[in-house]
Design a protein that fits this description.
Chain lengths: 205, 205
């Protein structure tokens, strides 16, 4: 798909910002460093983003766009796939790594904007609501609550993996979460199915 | 219980260090600031701790000692109670708050020592092994894996609560984790029991 030039420029600025945020953190980054990384002009950056904070917001928003296009599945399967793709991609994708670093740097970036978790919670909640309507969830499971818990657990899994194995076993830990969590939230017919029939891809999109 | 004076001094230094780490983070803290907070002498601090890093290690170690004495329960009930006491105590106890802050500041403190998660994983694993021997866990649940997942989930829950509600609903979020997790890991007879019959106290120990 061919994008208008302004959109391509904006995207390349977001990618450069992600690399800089990932490497230097929010407080260590500056628009000057992002301009340098991008090979564009300060004017081009300021045309799209009025501040470093706006750039960080754009990086946070772009996280879901790097995961969602890889998913071909629906409902509960899509929720499982999203976490597993995220776990794989986090090992190499600057956008996701920057998102993690910005999220963990409370007090600098996060003090100024809304919760960076909200985009992901809404996406997962929406898929879980569809799963509920399709009878995939056990009675009593609230899509919003479960979406929040999945996000909380993945956040902690990522921190634990970063501290203990430099994230090498992150996908394994996410699959483990599902093994322990699914029997409590999914109807029996779904449990084996969603763990064995993942329909996602790690090919470039 | 009366402690020898050296032990009391050591404990008061650890408490002061926890306050300073909680407020200023690892890189913002110094032995001088901890000496000042404690009202003791640099000599007394260096008698017990050879470096700021050793003080941070002591704070990490002391976390479990502020939670465990409040638990009267055993096995799976003890694991549930530990997480709920931790959630309540984290709202006010400088030792636990410092532990959380030190854990999240990878690259400064954590680069020099082993994983700060290990103490908690061992404690939970031990209780879960006893739960397994007592027939409280479902077949196929591995105590070590489940201990790690509980720790990962609690870490993420704490971060989410800190970002969204300044930790006000942390105990509610931890109870929610158990509601969704227990059906997949505990035998049916235990599920309602451990959520309704907590035997822990928030009284001072």
């Amino acid at each position: 798909m061919k994008q208008p030039r302004a959109l391509r420029t904006r995207e390349s600025i977001v990618q450069a910002a992600a690399q800089v945020f990932d490497e230097l953190g929010y407080s260590g980054s500056s628009i000057a460093k992002i301009v340098e990384r991008c090979g564009t002009t300060p004017g081009a950056v300021y045309f799209h983003f009025k501040s470093k904070e706006a750039l960080a917001d754009a990086v946070m928003e772009a996280q879901s766009r790097t995961v969602l296009p890889r998913l071909e599945s629906q409902r509960l399967q899509r929720v499982v796939d999203a976490t597993i793709v995220w776990a794989h991609q986090l090992q190499t994708d600057p956008l996701l790594r920057a998102g993690v670093r910005l999220t963990s740097e409370r007090g600098t970036y996060q003090a100024h904007v809304g919760s960076p978790y909200e985009t992901w919670v809404s996406i997962l909640e929406n898929d879980l609501e569809e799963a509920q309507r399709a009878g995939e969830l056990q009675p009593g499971v609230e899509p919003r609550e479960l979406a929040e818990f999945i996000l909380e657990a993945c956040t902690g899994i990522q921190m634990y993996a970063a501290a203990t194995t430099r994230r090498n076993d992150l996908p394994v830990l996410v699959e483990r979460m599902w093994r322990y969590l699914l029997p409590g939230v999914a109807v029996p017919a779904m449990i084996t199915q969603v763990l064995t029939r993942s329909t996602w891809t790690l090919e470039p999109t």
